[in-house]
Specification:
The structure is a single chain. With 313 residues, the protein is α/β, with parallel strands linked by helices. It is 39% helix and 14% strand. The protein has eleven helices and nine strands. A five-stranded parallel sheet has the order 7-6-5-8-9. It has a four-stranded parallel sheet with strand order 2-1-3-4. The chain starts with 15 loop residues before the first helix and ends with a helix. The relative contact order is 0.16. The protein binds phosphoric acid mono(formamide)ester.
């Protein structure tokens, strides 16, 4: 069970067997995390540094917990109180921390490609916790684990990813992963929120949400990423909810057993009805959060194995 890469920068370089191996290992951590003794010493003696240059609740908390449960020394840099505020660049910040000999560096950054650039400059393993509109690999992996547990497989599923596709690294990483695992992806949303060249991404495009949801096994909702928008992309929130907000009436077009997903943070009443989000017969949103810890434990264990092998050899 191994990853062929030194870093986890995106889903793009991962082969299906690597994705399956990582999810299989994560399953073991689901069991551990539900037990009364959540600690192992898999990362004992190693140091994990988390650098979040954008806000986060789920990803940051779950990487911290994952490292602690695996026995690593975990430091989360407080970016707002760091010398970044005095003008220190991302690369200089990373080189400074690298000099303290971390083994794992977890980075979220608003610029697409920033984490890849940083990975070229440091000697430790780097995990991308989301970079701009580019990739959010651990989110796609935790989504995949959630889907596999609910549906029993990752192939031959129809997955509708709905909402603000253009600004979403979650959509991009999920699209790559689901295509690689031989599921069918539909992108559903207004033309203004579709990325250029979406039709060439190996998926179907729908502007009519009811048509896009027809027969879908999985409905994945995304929020409007206003922090990445330059100007107005939708006429009004009311109009957007009417056309693209997920409610019981629109969900009725999907497969009767379809699950509802959302990476969070959710905007209730904008992209999803609040009651539907809380309906545990359909919504797996809280399970996604739970799977996040297990998937990040698995990813860090596999990268640490590579690191140790490289140092030994
Ligand atoms: N899904 C996700 O990345 O959530 P956070 O921004 O809270 O980490």
């Amino acid at each position: 069970m191994s990853l062929r890469q030194r870093h986890l920068l995106g889903i793009e370089p991962l082969a299906p067997d690597e994705i399956t191996a990582l999810l299989d290992l994560a399953e073991r951590y689901v069991v551990l995390n539900r037990s009364g003794r959540k600690h192992t010493d898999v990362l004992a003696g190693l140091t994990q540094i988390n650098m979040f240059f954008e806000p986060s609740t789920r990803t940051q908390a779950s990487f911290e917990l994952a490292g602690q449960r695996l026995g690593a020394d975990v430091l989360t840099m407080q970016v707002a109180q760091s010398s970044v505020r005095k003008g220190e660049t991302l690369i200089d910040t990373a080189l400074t921390l690298n000099a303290m000999h971390p083994d794992l560096l977890v980075v979220r950054h608003p610029s697409s490609g920033a984490v890849n650039l940083l990975a070229e400059k440091v000697t430790c393993a780097v995990l991308n916790a989301g970079d701009g509109r580019h990739e959010h690999p651990t989110q796609a992996l935790l989504d995949a684990l959630t889907i596999r547990r609910a549906k029993g497989r990752l192939h031959r599923l129809t997955v509708a990813i709905c909402g603000d596709i253009a600004h979403s690294r979650v959509a991009r990483s999920n699209l790559i992963l689901l295509n690689r695992m031989e599921s069918r992806v539909r992108l559903v949303g207004p033309a203004t929120l579709m990325p250029a060249g979406a039709a060439d991404l190996g998926c179907e495009i729908f502007e009519d949400m009811r048509a896009g949801l027809a027969g879908a096994d999985v409905v994945m909702m995304l929020r409007l990423q206003k922090e990445r928008m330059d100007g107005g992309f939708v006429p009004s929130m009311r109009e957007y909810y009417h056309r693209f907000g997920l409610d019981a009436e629109k969900l009725a077009r999907a497969h009767p057993d379809a699950i509802v997903m959302h990476p969070g943070p959710m905007n209730r009443g904008v992209e999803i009805d609040g009651l539907l989000a809380d309906d545990i017969r359909r919504s797996v949103i809280q399970e996604q959060v739970e799977m996040g810890v297990a998937v990040r434990m698995a990813a860090m264990e596999l990268l640490a194995d590579n690191l140790r092998a490289a140092r030994a050899g």
